[in-house]
Design a protein that fits this description.
Layout (H helix, E strand, L loop, with lengths): L15 H15 L1 H5 L8 E5 L6 H12 L3 E5 L10 H15 L3 E6 L17 H15 L7 E7 L7 H4 L6 E4 L5 H11 L11 H7 L5 H17 L7 H13 L9 H19 L7 E5 L9 E4 L10 H22 L9 H16 L21 H6 L6 H28 L1 H14 L1 E3 H8 L14 H7 L1
Parallel strand pairs: 1-4, 1-5, 2-3, 3-4
Antiparallel strand pairs: 6-7, 6-8
Subcellular location: Membrane
Organism: Ilex paraguariensis
Keywords: ATP-binding, Hydrolase, Membrane, Metal-binding, Metalloprotease, Nucleotide-binding, Protease, Transit peptide, Transmembrane, Transmembrane helix, Zinc
Length: about 475
């Protein structure tokens, strides 16, 4: 009844706000008198919302380990059966058993399986599911009520849940468990590296900076991949090389066969150096982390960047700089080899920069079209059915204005990228020469060579010997 899950709040990192909410519930269960003295009543339900892999189920396991009260754990799909009335009967049985053992905790994982919006007529809803949901609504806050039973539920699709389920009195609190920031990622990495042997030069803060957008599950997988690589290479400790290779593998795919063809290799080298030079010389772009000619996934070569700050808020200048950097490869091909020799290598870059430019116009209001959102939320919803049913209310004139603005942004940035390539041809030739020889250039090596030919902005340089040298 009091499960030893082996997980406590010490094992949960990077979600401090959610942890604090749950710590409060644990205190409520342990010392109810302290809260009752000021007229507080115990919350009936807590809904955990967030993307997959952020630690929602882990938090529930931690609260089970910490609370010291009976804990019932099940999945939303366990209520749904093909037989009529089974789901509602299981909900009744669950809450009857929970009331007998109150105070207690009930954890329902993936509650969207049973709590989907009623009467929507889309998404595969049926009467059996609705009866199960009705019974759940009644048990959580109906005529009889349920004192001492706290329901914790988790979902990554809150937009499809029934509104009656989300109201105060049923789920009193909605706790968002989002993707961790830099500090959160560092704490998560520290938790997952406790049982691993790391070389002394491995910096968890640098790994955290290199992994924006990674969830807790991604970071756990990263450290495990690094440990597997270290074992495969016969090492007794994980070094920075294993961690770098693991990040590259997770983000870009497996390492491919190295290129031997002279012409293709030279072209890819100019393409990647074009990205790195245009990004470095454009204000607002993140600093280069490394440039490599080693193929990964579909890419023949890659240029990596380290985000300078947490990328949750991005300025217009930063978005503009990303488009310039993204077009640097195509600009280098066109200027150095001529327009007839441009290749299909820029296909992925063009998709990315077109998406950024369109978002600047239609979502962020960063163009002459005006500061207003031009896309219906249903159109950009992840739900396929909602997208099919959404009516596009945009006029032909507005659609034309949007296309014109997107094209203007991309044309302007392409001219800037070509200007950077023309003005720094000597530096690009030197960088390509070194890159062809070494196949991989670190960010510091790249900036040291580039600074011999032009002034590198100081915000693109980390606190290393290169920065002191350039400042001097």
């Amino acid at each position: 009844m009091e499960p030893n899950t082996g997980v406590t709040f010490d094992d949960v990192a990077g979600v401090d706000e959610a942890k604090q909410d749950f710590q409060e519930i644990v205190d409520f269960l342990r010392t109810p008198g302290k809260f009752a003295a000021v007229g507080a009543r115990i919350p009936k339900g807590v809904l955990l919302v967030g993307p997959p892999g952020t630690g929602k189920t882990l938090l529930a396991r931690a609260i089970a380990g910490e609370a010291g009260v009976p804990f019932f754990s099940l999945s939303g799909s366990e209520f749904i059966e093909m037989f009529v009335g089974v789901g509602a009967s299981r909900v009744r049985d669950l809450f009857n058993k929970a009331k007998e053992n109150s105070p207690c905790l009930v954890f329902i994982d993936e509650i969207d399986a049973v709590g989907r919006q009623r009467g929507a007529g889309i998404g595969g809803g049926n009467d059996e599911r609705e009866q199960t949901l009705n019974q759940l609504l009644t048990e959580m806050d109906g005529f009889t009520g349920n004192s001492g039973v706290i329901v914790i539920a988790a979902t990554n699709r809150p937009e499809i849940l029934d509104q009656a389920l989300l109201r105060p009195g049923r789920f009193d609190r909605q706790v968002t468990v989002g993707l961790p920031d830099v500090r959160g990622r560092e704490e998560i990495l520290r938790v997952h590296s406790n049982n691993k042997k790391l070389e002394t030069d491995v910096s968890l803060s640098v790994i955290a900076m290199r992994t924006p957008g990674f969830s807790g599950a991604d970071l756990a997988n990263l450290m495990n991949e690094a440990a597997i690589l270290a074992g495969r290479r016969g090492k007794d400790k994980i070094t920075s090389k294993e961690i770098d290779d693991s990040i590259d593998r997770i983000v870009a795919g497996m390492e491919g066969t190295k290129m031997t063809d002279g012409k293709n290799k030279i072209l890819v080298a100019y393409h990647e150096v074009g990205h790195a030079v245009c990004a470095t010389l454009t204000p607002g772009h993140d600093p280069v982390q490394k440039v490599t000619l080693i193929p990964r996934g579909q890419s023949r070569g890659l240029t990596w960047f380290i985000p300078g700050e947490d990328p949750s808020l991005v300025s217009k200048q930063q978005l503009f700089a990303r488009i310039v950097g993204g077009l640097g490869g195509r600009a280098a091909e066109e200027i150095i080899f001529g327009e007839p020799e441009i290749t299909t290598g820029a296909a992925g870059d063009l998709q990315q920069i077109t998406q950024i430019a369109r978002q600047m116009v239609t979502m962020f209001g960063m163009s002459e079209v005006g500061p207003w959102a031009l896309i219906d939320p249903a159109v950009q919803s992840s739900d396929v059915v909602l997208r099919m049913l959404a009516r596009n209310s945009m006029s032909e004139k507005l659609a034309e204005d949007i296309d014109t603005s997107v094209r203007r942004i991309i044309d302007n940035t392409f001219e800037i990228a070509k200007m950077h390539v023309r003005n720094n041809r000597e530096a690009i030739d030197k960088l390509v020469e070194v890159l062809l020889e070494k196949e991989t250039l670190t960010g510091d090596e790249f900036r040291a060579i580039l600074s011999e030919f032009t002034i590198v902005p100081l915000d693109k340089i980390k606190k290393t010997g290169v920065r002191e040298m350039i400042e001097a």
